[in-house]
Protein backbone atom coordinates (compact mmCIF):
# COMPACT_ATOMS: atom_id res chain seq x y z
CA UNK A 1 0.00 0.00 0.00
CA UNK A 2 1.11 3.54 -0.75
CA UNK A 3 2.23 5.80 2.04
CA UNK A 4 2.65 9.52 2.48
CA UNK A 5 5.05 11.67 4.47
CA UNK A 6 3.57 12.95 7.71
CA UNK A 7 4.94 15.53 10.07
CA UNK A 8 3.02 16.50 13.18
CA UNK A 9 4.38 19.63 14.84
CA UNK A 10 3.05 20.64 18.23
CA UNK A 11 4.01 23.89 19.93
CA UNK A 12 6.40 22.15 22.31
CA UNK A 13 7.84 19.39 20.15
CA UNK A 14 7.84 17.63 16.82
CA UNK A 15 5.35 14.93 17.66
CA UNK A 16 5.79 12.61 14.70
CA UNK A 17 7.84 12.54 11.56
CA UNK A 18 7.76 9.64 9.12
CA UNK A 19 5.60 7.65 6.75
CA UNK A 20 1.93 7.06 7.31
CA UNK A 21 -0.77 5.04 5.55
CA UNK A 22 -3.97 6.66 6.69
CA UNK A 23 -4.73 9.68 8.79
CA UNK A 24 -8.01 10.86 10.25
CA UNK A 25 -8.22 14.38 11.65
CA UNK A 26 -11.03 16.34 13.32
CA UNK A 27 -12.20 19.18 11.02
CA UNK A 28 -14.79 21.82 12.02
CA UNK A 29 -17.60 19.90 10.28
CA UNK A 30 -16.63 16.35 11.19
CA UNK A 31 -13.75 14.00 10.72
CA UNK A 32 -11.70 14.02 7.59
CA UNK A 33 -9.67 11.08 6.32
CA UNK A 34 -6.48 11.42 4.34
CA UNK A 35 -5.15 8.65 2.14
CA UNK A 36 -1.92 8.66 0.11
CA UNK A 37 -1.87 10.88 -2.99
CA UNK A 38 -4.51 13.19 -1.63
CA UNK A 39 -5.35 16.38 -3.46
CA UNK A 40 -3.39 19.46 -2.32
CA UNK A 41 -5.38 21.06 0.43
CA UNK A 42 -5.31 23.04 3.64
CA UNK A 43 -7.72 21.82 6.27
CA UNK A 44 -8.63 23.54 9.52
CA UNK A 45 -8.26 21.25 12.52
CA UNK A 46 -10.32 21.63 15.67
CA UNK A 47 -9.85 20.19 19.13
CA UNK A 48 -10.51 16.47 18.92
CA UNK A 49 -9.08 13.03 18.52
CA UNK A 50 -6.98 12.18 15.49
CA UNK A 51 -6.01 8.70 14.37
CA UNK A 52 -3.14 7.60 12.24
CA UNK A 53 -2.07 4.27 10.83
CA UNK A 54 1.69 4.28 10.56
CA UNK A 55 2.04 0.53 10.21
CA UNK A 56 -0.54 -1.81 8.83
CA UNK A 57 -3.33 -2.51 11.27
CA UNK A 58 -1.80 -0.42 14.06
CA UNK A 59 -3.82 2.67 14.75
CA UNK A 60 -2.39 5.32 17.00
CA UNK A 61 -4.71 7.79 18.63
CA UNK A 62 -3.68 11.38 19.30
CA UNK A 63 -5.40 14.13 21.25
CA UNK A 64 -5.09 17.22 19.04
CA UNK A 65 -5.49 20.89 19.81
CA UNK A 66 -6.56 23.46 17.24
CA UNK A 67 -4.48 24.18 14.17
CA UNK A 68 -4.38 23.13 10.55
CA UNK A 69 -3.17 20.43 8.19
CA UNK A 70 -1.54 21.10 4.89
CA UNK A 71 -1.28 18.53 2.13
CA UNK A 72 1.16 19.25 -0.68
CA UNK A 73 2.72 16.73 -3.04
CA UNK A 74 1.77 13.72 -0.94
CA UNK A 75 3.28 15.31 2.15
CA UNK A 76 1.12 16.19 5.12
CA UNK A 77 2.16 18.80 7.67
CA UNK A 78 -0.06 18.98 10.70
CA UNK A 79 0.58 22.07 12.81
CA UNK A 80 -1.34 22.09 16.08
CA UNK A 81 -1.24 23.65 19.56
CA UNK A 82 -0.91 20.36 21.32
CA UNK A 83 -0.58 16.72 20.35
CA UNK A 84 -0.60 14.04 23.02
CA UNK A 85 -0.59 10.27 23.12
CA UNK A 86 -3.18 8.69 25.41
CA UNK A 87 -0.45 7.36 27.69
CA UNK A 88 1.03 10.83 28.13
CA UNK A 89 -2.18 12.41 29.32
CA UNK A 90 -2.37 13.14 33.01
CA UNK A 91 -5.97 12.23 33.80
CA UNK A 92 -6.04 13.96 37.14
CA UNK A 93 -4.75 17.19 35.67
CA UNK A 94 -7.24 17.01 32.82
CA UNK A 95 -10.03 16.41 35.30
CA UNK A 96 -8.96 19.39 37.35
CA UNK A 97 -8.80 21.49 34.21
CA UNK A 98 -12.34 20.43 33.33
CA UNK A 99 -13.63 21.23 36.79
CA UNK A 100 -11.95 24.61 36.76
CA UNK A 101 -13.45 25.43 33.37
CA UNK A 102 -16.91 24.28 34.44
CA UNK A 103 -16.63 26.37 37.58
CA UNK A 104 -15.71 29.43 35.56
CA UNK A 105 -18.51 28.85 33.08
CA UNK A 106 -21.03 29.08 35.92
CA UNK A 107 -19.77 32.51 36.88
CA UNK A 108 -20.59 35.70 35.11
CA UNK A 109 -18.00 36.42 32.45
CA UNK A 110 -17.41 38.64 29.47
CA UNK A 111 -17.98 37.12 26.04
CA UNK A 112 -14.29 36.81 25.48
CA UNK A 113 -13.72 35.03 28.76
CA UNK A 114 -16.62 32.76 27.94
CA UNK A 115 -15.09 31.61 24.66
CA UNK A 116 -11.80 31.22 26.39
CA UNK A 117 -13.17 28.93 29.08
CA UNK A 118 -15.22 27.07 26.54
CA UNK A 119 -12.10 26.30 24.53
CA UNK A 120 -10.31 25.24 27.69
CA UNK A 121 -13.22 22.94 28.58
CA UNK A 122 -13.16 21.42 25.10
CA UNK A 123 -9.48 20.63 25.44
CA UNK A 124 -9.96 19.05 28.85
CA UNK A 125 -12.90 16.92 27.71
CA UNK A 126 -10.95 15.83 24.67
CA UNK A 127 -8.02 14.69 26.78
CA UNK A 128 -10.29 12.84 29.17
CA UNK A 129 -12.19 11.16 26.38
CA UNK A 130 -9.04 9.80 24.84
CA UNK A 131 -7.41 8.84 28.11
CA UNK A 132 -10.39 7.13 29.61
CA UNK A 133 -10.74 4.66 26.75
CA UNK A 134 -7.45 3.23 27.83
CA UNK A 135 -7.37 0.79 30.72
CA UNK A 136 -3.95 1.78 32.08
CA UNK A 137 -5.06 5.24 32.90
CA UNK A 138 -8.08 4.35 34.97
CA UNK B 1 47.45 55.40 53.89
CA UNK B 2 43.94 54.30 54.78
CA UNK B 3 43.04 52.77 58.07
CA UNK B 4 43.53 49.01 58.14
CA UNK B 5 40.16 48.35 59.65
CA UNK B 6 38.45 50.45 56.97
CA UNK B 7 40.08 48.44 54.22
CA UNK B 8 39.17 45.20 55.96
CA UNK B 9 35.48 46.14 56.18
CA UNK B 10 35.52 47.23 52.56
CA UNK B 11 36.90 43.86 51.50
CA UNK B 12 34.24 42.08 53.50
CA UNK B 13 31.45 44.10 51.96
CA UNK B 14 32.75 43.41 48.45
CA UNK B 15 32.95 39.73 49.33
CA UNK B 16 29.32 39.74 50.49
CA UNK B 17 28.18 41.40 47.29
CA UNK B 18 30.18 38.91 45.30
CA UNK B 19 28.36 36.07 47.04
CA UNK B 20 25.05 37.51 45.85
CA UNK B 21 26.14 38.13 42.28
CA UNK B 22 27.69 34.70 42.11
CA UNK B 23 24.48 33.08 43.34
CA UNK B 24 22.45 35.06 40.81
CA UNK B 25 24.83 33.94 38.12
CA UNK B 26 24.26 30.32 39.03
CA UNK B 27 20.49 30.73 39.15
CA UNK B 28 20.42 32.45 35.78
CA UNK B 29 22.63 29.88 34.15
CA UNK B 30 20.43 27.03 35.35
CA UNK B 31 17.29 28.83 34.19
CA UNK B 32 19.07 29.58 30.97
CA UNK B 33 19.55 25.89 30.14
CA UNK B 34 15.83 25.40 30.78
CA UNK B 35 14.95 28.32 28.54
CA UNK B 36 17.27 27.16 25.80
CA UNK B 37 15.72 23.73 25.78
CA UNK B 38 12.28 25.25 25.59
CA UNK B 39 13.43 27.48 22.77
CA UNK B 40 14.76 24.53 20.84
CA UNK B 41 11.51 22.61 21.32
CA UNK B 42 9.44 25.55 20.12
CA UNK B 43 11.52 26.63 17.15
CA UNK B 44 10.22 23.97 14.70
CA UNK B 45 6.64 25.03 15.43
CA UNK B 46 7.47 28.72 15.25
CA UNK B 47 9.22 28.50 11.89
CA UNK B 48 6.86 25.91 10.38
CA UNK B 49 3.96 28.18 11.24
CA UNK B 50 5.57 31.15 9.52
CA UNK B 51 6.57 29.04 6.55
CA UNK B 52 3.11 27.55 6.06
CA UNK B 53 1.35 30.88 6.29
CA UNK B 54 3.69 32.37 3.74
CA UNK B 55 3.09 29.37 1.48
CA UNK B 56 -0.67 29.63 1.79
CA UNK B 57 -0.52 33.34 1.06
CA UNK B 58 1.59 32.72 -2.01
CA UNK B 59 -0.95 30.32 -3.38
CA UNK B 60 -3.94 32.49 -2.61
CA UNK B 61 -3.08 36.01 -3.69
CA UNK B 62 -6.68 37.19 -3.94
CA UNK B 63 -7.59 36.30 -0.39
CA UNK B 64 -9.58 38.91 1.52
CA UNK B 65 -9.78 38.57 5.23
CA UNK B 66 -10.25 40.96 8.13
CA UNK B 67 -6.84 40.08 9.58
CA UNK B 68 -5.25 41.40 6.39
CA UNK B 69 -7.24 44.62 6.42
CA UNK B 70 -4.75 47.44 6.94
CA UNK B 71 -7.61 49.95 7.62
CA UNK B 72 -5.95 52.55 5.43
CA UNK B 73 -8.85 54.95 5.72
CA UNK B 74 -7.93 55.83 9.28
CA UNK B 75 -5.45 58.75 9.30
CA UNK B 76 -2.10 58.27 11.03
CA UNK B 77 -3.02 60.50 14.02
CA UNK B 78 -6.11 58.49 14.85
CA UNK B 79 -4.70 55.05 14.46
CA UNK B 80 -4.84 53.05 17.62
CA UNK B 81 -1.54 51.33 18.05
CA UNK B 82 -1.08 48.63 20.63
CA UNK B 83 2.27 47.24 21.56
CA UNK B 84 3.19 44.33 23.72
CA UNK B 85 6.41 45.11 25.54
CA UNK B 86 8.31 42.21 27.01
CA UNK B 87 10.70 43.30 29.76
CA UNK B 88 12.13 41.49 32.77
CA UNK B 89 10.56 41.43 36.22
CA UNK B 90 13.65 42.99 37.75
CA UNK B 91 16.80 44.77 36.66
CA UNK B 92 20.36 43.52 37.15
CA UNK B 93 20.50 42.27 33.60
CA UNK B 94 22.82 44.75 31.95
CA UNK B 95 21.30 46.64 29.04
CA UNK B 96 18.52 44.10 28.50
CA UNK B 97 15.66 46.23 29.78
CA UNK B 98 17.02 49.50 28.48
CA UNK B 99 17.20 48.22 24.93
CA UNK B 100 13.58 47.13 24.98
CA UNK B 101 12.42 50.35 26.60
CA UNK B 102 14.37 52.45 24.13
CA UNK B 103 12.81 50.62 21.20
CA UNK B 104 9.35 51.11 22.64
CA UNK B 105 10.07 54.83 23.11
CA UNK B 106 10.78 55.02 19.39
CA UNK B 107 7.35 53.56 18.67
CA UNK B 108 5.73 56.02 21.07
CA UNK B 109 7.31 58.90 19.13
CA UNK B 110 5.25 58.02 16.07
CA UNK B 111 1.82 59.59 15.55
CA UNK B 112 -1.22 57.68 16.75
CA UNK B 113 -3.01 56.74 19.93
CA UNK B 114 -0.77 54.38 21.81
CA UNK B 115 -1.71 51.69 24.22
CA UNK B 116 0.72 49.42 25.97
CA UNK B 117 0.46 45.84 27.07
CA UNK B 118 3.43 45.35 29.31
CA UNK B 119 4.67 41.93 30.27
CA UNK B 120 7.19 42.21 33.09
CA UNK B 121 7.19 44.25 36.28
CA UNK B 122 10.07 46.57 35.41
CA UNK B 123 8.55 47.84 32.17
CA UNK B 124 5.23 48.33 33.91
CA UNK B 125 6.80 50.63 36.49
CA UNK B 126 8.75 52.54 33.90
CA UNK B 127 5.83 53.26 31.61
CA UNK B 128 3.45 53.96 34.48
CA UNK B 129 5.77 56.77 35.59
CA UNK B 130 5.97 58.06 32.07
CA UNK B 131 2.22 58.43 31.86
CA UNK B 132 1.42 56.28 28.85
CA UNK B 133 -1.86 54.41 28.72
CA UNK B 134 -1.31 50.89 29.96
CA UNK B 135 -3.87 48.14 29.92
CA UNK B 136 -4.21 47.52 33.64
CA UNK B 137 -5.92 44.17 33.34
CA UNK B 138 -2.88 42.89 31.65
CA UNK B 139 -0.88 41.45 34.52
CA UNK B 140 1.44 38.79 33.31
CA UNK B 141 4.92 37.97 34.45
CA UNK B 142 7.66 36.83 32.15
CA UNK B 143 8.77 33.92 34.29
CA UNK B 144 8.21 30.48 32.82
CA UNK B 145 6.41 31.28 29.56
CA UNK B 146 3.61 28.84 28.82
CA UNK B 147 1.29 28.25 25.90
CA UNK B 148 -1.59 29.00 28.25
CA UNK B 149 -0.31 32.51 28.95
CA UNK B 150 0.34 33.15 25.27
CA UNK B 151 -3.23 32.06 24.54
CA UNK B 152 -4.53 34.50 27.18
CA UNK B 153 -2.52 37.36 25.75
CA UNK B 154 -3.45 36.71 22.14
CA UNK B 155 -7.10 36.31 23.16
CA UNK B 156 -7.14 39.82 24.62
CA UNK B 157 -5.40 41.33 21.60
CA UNK B 158 -7.41 39.58 18.92
CA UNK B 159 -10.61 40.59 20.65
CA UNK B 160 -9.57 44.25 20.70
CA UNK B 161 -8.38 44.08 17.11
CA UNK B 162 -11.68 42.60 15.95
CA UNK B 163 -13.67 45.19 17.86
CA UNK B 164 -11.65 47.99 16.25
CA UNK B 165 -10.12 49.11 19.54
CA UNK B 166 -6.73 48.51 18.02
CA UNK B 167 -5.66 49.00 14.42
CA UNK B 168 -2.09 47.83 14.62
CA UNK B 169 -0.40 45.47 17.02
CA UNK B 170 3.33 45.25 17.56
CA UNK B 171 5.42 43.21 19.89
CA UNK B 172 8.72 44.47 21.28
CA UNK B 173 10.95 41.72 22.59
CA UNK B 174 14.53 40.55 22.62
CA UNK B 175 15.56 37.92 20.17
CA UNK B 176 18.43 35.66 20.96
CA UNK B 177 20.88 35.67 18.07
CA UNK B 178 23.30 33.25 19.70
CA UNK B 179 24.63 32.72 23.19
CA UNK B 180 26.62 35.96 23.17
CA UNK B 181 24.40 38.27 21.19
CA UNK B 182 20.76 39.21 21.52
CA UNK B 183 18.94 42.13 19.96
CA UNK B 184 15.79 43.98 20.86
CA UNK B 185 13.35 43.76 17.99
CA UNK B 186 9.94 45.03 16.91
CA UNK B 187 7.60 42.66 15.17
CA UNK B 188 4.28 43.55 13.60
CA UNK B 189 1.66 41.01 14.62
CA UNK B 190 -1.49 42.43 13.06
CA UNK B 191 -2.70 43.25 10.49
CA UNK B 192 -0.80 40.66 8.54
CA UNK B 193 1.22 41.97 5.65
CA UNK B 194 2.00 39.86 2.68
CA UNK B 195 5.47 41.28 2.31
CA UNK B 196 6.34 40.50 5.92
CA UNK B 197 6.47 36.83 5.17
CA UNK B 198 9.74 36.53 3.37
CA UNK B 199 8.84 34.88 0.11
CA UNK B 200 10.88 32.06 -1.20
CA UNK B 201 12.40 32.45 -4.63
CA UNK B 202 10.98 29.72 -6.80
CA UNK B 203 12.45 28.57 -10.12
CA UNK B 204 10.27 29.66 -13.00
CA UNK B 205 9.86 26.28 -14.60
CA UNK B 206 8.63 24.65 -11.42
CA UNK B 207 5.08 23.43 -11.51
CA UNK B 208 3.04 25.05 -8.80
CA UNK B 209 -0.40 23.81 -8.09
CA UNK B 210 -3.30 25.47 -6.41
CA UNK B 211 -4.23 24.53 -2.87
CA UNK B 212 -7.81 23.97 -1.83
CA UNK B 213 -8.96 25.30 1.48
CA UNK B 214 -11.34 23.13 3.42
CA UNK B 215 -14.10 23.78 4.49
CA UNK B 216 -13.58 27.34 3.19
CA UNK B 217 -10.87 29.97 3.01
CA UNK B 218 -12.65 31.95 5.71
CA UNK B 219 -12.82 29.07 8.19
CA UNK B 220 -9.25 27.99 7.55
CA UNK B 221 -7.92 31.52 8.02
CA UNK B 222 -10.04 31.93 11.15
CA UNK B 223 -8.44 28.83 12.54
CA UNK B 224 -4.89 29.49 11.40
CA UNK B 225 -4.41 33.15 12.19
CA UNK B 226 -5.34 33.19 15.89
CA UNK B 227 -3.07 30.17 16.20
CA UNK B 228 -0.37 32.00 14.34
CA UNK B 229 -0.62 35.02 16.63
CA UNK B 230 -0.60 32.81 19.71
CA UNK B 231 2.36 30.89 18.38
CA UNK B 232 4.24 34.09 17.62
CA UNK B 233 3.57 35.50 21.08
CA UNK B 234 4.64 32.26 22.69
CA UNK B 235 7.79 32.20 20.58
CA UNK B 236 8.57 35.80 21.50
CA UNK B 237 8.03 35.12 25.21
CA UNK B 238 10.35 32.15 25.10
CA UNK B 239 12.99 34.10 23.16
CA UNK B 240 12.76 37.00 25.60
CA UNK B 241 12.96 34.67 28.58
CA UNK B 242 16.09 33.05 27.23
CA UNK B 243 17.70 36.40 26.38
CA UNK B 244 16.82 37.82 29.78
CA UNK B 245 18.63 35.06 31.58
CA UNK B 246 21.47 35.22 29.14
CA UNK B 247 21.83 38.96 29.79
CA UNK B 248 21.56 38.52 33.54
CA UNK B 249 24.08 35.72 33.46
CA UNK B 250 26.58 37.86 31.60
CA UNK B 251 25.97 40.90 33.81
CA UNK B 252 26.40 38.84 36.94
CA UNK B 253 29.50 37.18 35.55
CA UNK B 254 31.16 40.51 34.87
CA UNK B 255 30.05 41.80 38.30
CA UNK B 256 31.63 38.78 39.97
CA UNK B 257 34.79 39.23 37.92
CA UNK B 258 35.11 42.89 38.78
CA UNK B 259 34.45 42.11 42.45
CA UNK B 260 37.29 39.63 42.33
CA UNK B 261 39.70 42.15 40.83
CA UNK B 262 38.54 44.73 43.38
CA UNK B 263 39.27 42.30 46.20
CA UNK B 264 42.64 41.60 44.69
CA UNK B 265 43.54 45.29 44.59
CA UNK B 266 42.17 45.93 48.05
CA UNK B 267 44.07 43.05 49.58
CA UNK B 268 47.31 44.44 48.16
CA UNK B 269 46.57 47.80 49.76
CA UNK B 270 45.59 46.03 52.96
CA UNK B 271 48.83 44.06 53.07
CA UNK B 272 50.89 47.17 52.39
CA UNK B 273 49.10 49.05 55.16
CA UNK B 274 49.62 46.14 57.54
CA UNK B 275 53.29 45.91 56.61
CA UNK B 276 53.71 49.66 57.07
CA UNK B 277 52.12 49.48 60.52
CA UNK B 278 54.43 46.62 61.56
CA UNK B 279 57.50 48.44 60.25
CA UNK B 280 56.45 51.51 62.15
CA UNK B 281 56.03 49.54 65.37
CA UNK B 282 59.43 47.91 64.99
CA UNK B 283 61.03 51.28 64.38
CA UNK B 284 59.34 52.63 67.48
CA UNK B 285 60.45 49.68 69.65
CA UNK B 286 64.01 49.90 68.30
CA UNK B 287 64.34 53.60 68.80
CA UNK B 288 62.85 53.31 72.29
CA UNK B 289 65.35 50.56 73.20
CA UNK B 290 68.26 52.54 71.78
CA UNK B 291 67.22 55.61 73.74
CA UNK B 292 67.29 53.58 76.99
CA UNK B 293 70.78 52.15 76.27
CA UNK B 294 72.36 55.59 76.14
TrEMBL record, chain A:
The gene is atpC. It holds the Pfam family ATP-synt_DE_N. It comes from Candidatus Mediterraneibacter tabaqchaliae. Keywords: ATP synthesis, Cell membrane, CF(1), Hydrogen ion transport, Ion transport, Membrane, Transport. Belongs to the ATPase epsilon chain family. This is ATP synthase epsilon chain. It is found in: Cell membrane. InterPro entries: ATP_F1_dsu/esu_C_sf, ATP_synth_F1_dsu/esu, ATP_synth_F1_dsu/esu_N, ATP_synth_F1_esu_C, ATPsynth_dsu/esu_N. GO terms for molecular function: ATP binding; proton-transporting ATP synthase activity, rotational mechanism.
Amino acid sequence: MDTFGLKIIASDKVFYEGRCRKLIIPAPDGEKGILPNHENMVIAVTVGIGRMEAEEGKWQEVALGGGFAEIVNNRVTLIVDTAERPEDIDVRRAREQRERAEEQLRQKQSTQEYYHTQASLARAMNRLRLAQDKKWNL
Amino acid sequence: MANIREIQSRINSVKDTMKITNAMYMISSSKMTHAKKKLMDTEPYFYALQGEISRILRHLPELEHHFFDAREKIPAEERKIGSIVVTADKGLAGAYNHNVVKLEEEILEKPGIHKLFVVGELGRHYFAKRGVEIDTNFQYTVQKPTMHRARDISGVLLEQFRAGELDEIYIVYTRMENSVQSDAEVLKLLPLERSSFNEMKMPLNMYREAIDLYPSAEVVMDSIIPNYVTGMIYGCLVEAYASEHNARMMAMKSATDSAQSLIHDLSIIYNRARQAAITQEITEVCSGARAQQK
